[in-house]
Amino acid sequence: MANSASYSVKTDTIEDQIAVEKAISQIPNVRAVNRSDDVVRTLTKANTILTWISIGVITILLVVAVILISMTVNVGISVRKNEIGIMKLIGATDSFVRAPFLVEGAAIGLIGAMIPLGLLYLSYAKLMGKLIGKYLGSLSTVFLSVQEFYHYMLPLSLALGIGIGLLGSIITVRRHLQV
Questions:
Q1: Among 112, 113, 144, 178, who pairs with 148 as Cys (CB 3.0-4.6 Å)?
Q2: CB 162 within 8 A of CB 103
Q3: Is the CB of residue 45 less than 8 Å from the CB of residue 14?
């Protein structure tokens, strides 16, 4: 079958390539199946390296966020030292004194999550509009719409922002607020 057709098969993941090659090579009248092991190894290594770099950068950013929120709450504690003393003298409980600082930390974390979410929303919508408009027929990858993307991203990001804010304020309140 020297003049037969040639087909290109794409897999969802690189790891599926070997299984697909074996399955296709067992089909009758298939002359040859080509795949590139070098490309697979290179892409897999690059993916692993990028994953570890991303984990490192995310960890550093989380630590920096907790430190910044902690410092902000610490400034609030320092500014309100006299008020805290007065509250304690009139019988305020420890949790009543600590609660505003925990709310402040959660609010800072929430605002800190909302700003990048807004920027991400605008840039994702604009990028997807350009990609789909320019490459509508040639894209083999299906992208999530902005609404689908935010259906998952919004609650996760807001919860993470509030959690980071609470963590930073809990650390500071424990360390600097002796009530």
A1: 144
A2: no
A3: no
Residue carrying structure tokens 């930073």: 168
Does residue 4 form part of some domain? no
Which backbone phi and psi does 142 adopt, to 5 degrees? -100, 125
The total of structural domains in the chain comes to 1
3 falls within a domain: no
Continuous H helices in the chain? 17-25, 37-79, 81-89, 94-135, 146-176
CB 73 within 8 A of CB 141: no
Give residue for tokens 């408009």.
133
Neighbouring C-beta atoms of residue 132, cutoff 10 Å: 12
pLDDT tens string 51-76 = 999 999 999 999 999 999 989 888 98
The encoded tokens of residue 49 equal 């390296």
Structure tokens at 21: 């090659």
Range of the domain at 116: 14-176
Task: Give the type of residue at 119.
Answer: L
pTM of the prediction? 0.67
